[in-house]
Amino acid sequence: MRKLGISIYPMHNSREEIKDYISLAGKYGFKRIFTCLLSVEGEKERILDEFKDIVTHANTFGMEVIADVSPKVFKDLELDIKDLRFFKDMGLYGIRLDMGFNGIEESQMTYNPHGMKIEVNMSNGTKYIDNILSYLPNKENLLGCHNFYPHRYTGLSFEHFIKCSEQFKEKGLRTAAFVSSNTAKYGPWPVSEGLCTLECHRSLPIDVQAKHLWATDLIDDVIIANAFASEEELKALSKLDPYCLELKCTLVDDIPTIEGDIVSKEYHFNRGDVSEYVIRSTQSRVKYRGHNFEPFNTPDMNRGDIIIETSLYGHYAGELQVALKPMENSGKSNIVGRIEEGELFLLDYIKPWQKFKLKVLD
């Protein structure tokens, strides 16, 4: 099951602020929490007490908390990689290795007696995961998660992101990546210019970022990297279907009732015999066979236009299409609406036979 997550940074916020945020995220069905031990300083007992209190609260909402660590954290806290009890005593679901070990050590960690998950960095594009797998880890306890990038222009390129993600997904490993809240202020480091995995996401609405990650079919879990996201953002993410791409759209004025229902209420999937010009959803033409679809808005078509064929096209009448390229209108095709400009790029991710939804904005 694909999951949503948040991030918390105890070094920046009070326990009560963090607990309130966890409660809010829990209300909207978030199930993962990322936190960071890389920049935490202090005695083991204080760290354990503070984190345990927060993690216990998160666990009441069924949230899985994973903390970012490194070889330096093990050294500073005088921990042995063969004994993860310190992290288990915090109530953690797992640890994320921001910087890896030598492969065999990660493999050994996956056999820890506590069943804790070992999450490794997905963003480097090396043969790191192949090295770990060569030592036959317990794959049930091995996860992958991308980095996030607080400095503008330093996030991953989309090409590199795909390459790295495929390395993990093709091996059957669970994957995660980060999106950025446009209202949050806190991350693990002083620089804060958004906090996302993909550079192209930095200025996008948070729900569009998540849709894009899921549309690649390479990412299972989507985590908000910075804190605190607004309730509006948490709510928007909670309404997404992680398995079915939903595109926001607007309708033309005075659209007939049946045409409006075809857009917003019918079941849509792209035909298998795909066209380079249009996405075709054909079930509506079967359901409404015999209805007279009259032409009422027939200008030339542009990418993102939503089309419903008129009865002048015979057995195509009632078929919904989404334009992928500019096209000349024969006068037989009604333009009934349009995909939101900021989501037009998501049309490229609708594959043959893929299901999709259209959400009409008020």
Describe the structure.
With 362 residues, the protein is an alpha/beta fold. 27% of the residues lie in helices and 20% in strands. Helix 5 links the parallel strand 4 and strand 5. Helix 1 packs parallel to helix 2. It is elongated and about 75 Å long. The two termini are 31 Å apart. 40% of the residues are buried.
Summarize the topology:
Elements: E1 4-8, H1 15-27, E2 32-36, H2 44-59, E3 64-69, H3 71-76, H4 85-89, E4 94-97, H5 104-109, E5 117-121, H6 128-134, E6 142-145, H7 158-169, E7 176-179, H8 206-215, E8 221-224, H9 231-238, E9 245-251, H10 257-265, E10 268-269, E11 278-281, H11 283-287, E12 305-309, E13 320-323, E14 333-339, E15 355-360
Parallel strand pairs: 1-2, 1-8, 2-3, 3-4, 4-5, 5-6, 7-8, 9-15
Antiparallel strand pairs: 9-14, 10-15, 11-13, 12-13, 12-14
Helix pairs in contact: 1-2
Portion in helices? 25-40%
What does the radius of gyration come to? 24 Å
Count of helical stretches? 11
- Assembly status: single chain
Question: Regions with pLDDT < 50 over 5+ consecutive residues?
Answer: none
- What is the N-to-C succession of helices and strands? EHEHEHHEHEHEHEHEHEHEEHEEEE
How many β-strand stretches? 15
Key descriptive features of the protein:
362 residues, 7-stranded mixed beta sheet, alpha/beta, single chain
Summarize the structure.
The protein has helices at 15-27, 44-59, 71-76, 85-89, 104-109, 128-134, 158-169, 206-215, 231-238, 257-265, 283-287; strands at 4-8, 32-36, 64-69, 94-97, 117-121, 142-145, 176-179, 221-224, 245-251, 268-269, 278-281, 305-309, 320-323, 333-339, 355-360.
